[in-house]
Queue: 2 jobs
Job 1
Amino acid sequence: MLRQVSLQSLRGLAVAAALAVASTVSSAQNAADRPQRGDAFLIYRETRVALPGGKMRLLAAGTWGRAVAIEGPTVVGIVNGAKLSVPLANVACGRSGVARLSAEIRDRPTDWSLYLYRADLRRKLKDYDAALEDVAAIPEDASEYPSRMVYLGVIKRDQENWQGAVDDLSAALELATAARDRRAMAYIHLYRGPAYYRLDKLDAAIDDIDEAIKLGYDDAEVHLWRGKLLVQKGQTDLAFEAFKKAKELDPYDKEVRAALVQLYERLNLYGLATDELNELAKDDTNEPAVLWTQARIHYKSKRYDEALAVAEKLLEIEPDHVGARVCQARIYFAKGDKRSLERIALRLMALKLDNGGDFAQRGFCLDACGLTVDAMKDFDQAIALGYRDSSVHTCRAQIHARRSEWEKVVAEATAAIKLDARNKDAYYARGVGLLWLKKTDEGVADFDRAIRIEPNFVRALVARALTFANTN
């Protein structure tokens, strides 16, 4: 049977999890050992904690929590929606946590669970080689050995080796199923789901997440992922409920709040997006991710001056922030400021990029400047690097439309719709392509879909009216 204490440590992928404590910490403890607000921390000793109302709960070593505050010798954190106090003596966080566990391992070199805990901390620090060494150190006759396959899968997932992650986690699931270990099965389904998503197996990913919930996994991480996947299916109402549940379980999880902001953006609910963003920005109004979202919301709300001001503030912190440059470019394009637009395009083309998101953002800017060949090269690179975004395929469809390449328009628009079933621009582009391919009924059906998403979508309304006028 998979050992419980080892499997508890698998909650390292979840940002909120159980707390545990059993001793006090010296007042001389180094402040570097203390997690800061919002940090995930590992509890590596089995401990009893007091629940609200006075009841006690025994929590296994290897569980994770999220820090809310430091109060004397304890950290106050969130665990499955409950706020609990945990002695700092039982907590490991960041590089100081790795050092602490290394000291424990020197004292207890055959306590293999400590190797798994240290591997999890190292994984979070993206020290993957060291994490793999920790996992490889566990001998075959150790009770923790079955958990080794799970850790290998999780590390491969973090390294974006999606197929390798699925293979290892599937093998681990067979072991857990044979052992009838429902908790282990739930964790593995949670970890395998996102890997399936990256392999374009959306239904399999949703099935895994739903199975994790059915098996009893109920924290912010699993509901966050369920919401993300449902957004991709276009089921925004269900996605909102999933994000809401995640927020209830961990109101301090910034990733959950960011997901809500993005969903409100997608639905053009900019007021709600701004309210959620203000909550997200309470701790750090100069955080680049927050500023970038603020700039984006201002731009979409056509508050161009406010968007420019925020983008400039962001560029003071990160001079090469591609998204901020693209936000500037789009505003200059809307204002007809061609000189400023070209200046930003030249600056972007000089940057050496290394991730798909930045290539995509630069592609949008180059397209706005009329540099469609360079834009398409950037989009190709973004896709090759695994960047999945509906707007990339929508822009590619629009470029093909300007070239009268109608079959390619339909193909790219279909790819965009597969990634976002509520992308009205993709439905419109595909509708136009289908009309030119003399598939009138299918084209009109796409215009109708775009109008259902946005009843005042002028281009789709006009295209639909002109089509009827020309065919009657």
Job 2
Amino acid sequence: MDQDFQLFDLSKLNGWIFNNSSDSQIQSQILKLGRSNYTKPWSDPYIHYHSHTHELYLLSQGEFKIIVNNVMILMKGLSLLLVQPKVPHILIGGTGTIQHYMMRLPVEKDDKIITKKIGKKDIQLYLHNFKEQNAMLDKSLGFYSDLNKLQNCNKWLLGKNYSYNAPFTLGCISIKDGDLTGLELIEEDDEYDYKYILGITGSIKTIIKDLSFTVTPHQLLRLQERVKINVEILEQPLLLIIIRISSSSFD
């Protein structure tokens, strides 16, 4: 496939997939992306932060309980959480079968600074005292969005001049019952080095340089340098995540 656009099938992959290390499954110079492929909930052993990278949790199934600088965040299926650099956080558990994507960017500055080791008794205490505080997450710490709510979809959520300022742009497209509102997010011609289209539910047919192929759930289409794309919906309900990244935004 032309290097200006590549389609990746993530449906059977687990762990870190996109990375800039020599042993990564797919080479990526700006976005680090991993996937939990229908696993049981787990907890982190450390409270930690990342010095320069923005960390994104995209949960499509199950529940996560995450503490972001002492604010308790309950993530339910089809929700998004951004944690800002230098903000301590920890995943303390969850319920159900977990299907989620983890993203960090820029990947070349990724690190993990441990602030405190957490034992089983600490986790049990956190879980015992857990109370959802999603609305209390200050913008200096991060951003949370419930993607089940239509008012949070068919628009750009993250990025300069959008709901939450970030050095990259992220939007959600949710289409059902024939309403095509939101498709313009895919076809918008704006400056970027990379555009990613991640399928969560439904499917679309994309036409790029007279080539046609289908994006289905858990497939990722990567475009480079403002490649022209046309889209036709094949299956609804449709949920897509769109990310645009410019390398210069992280200089």
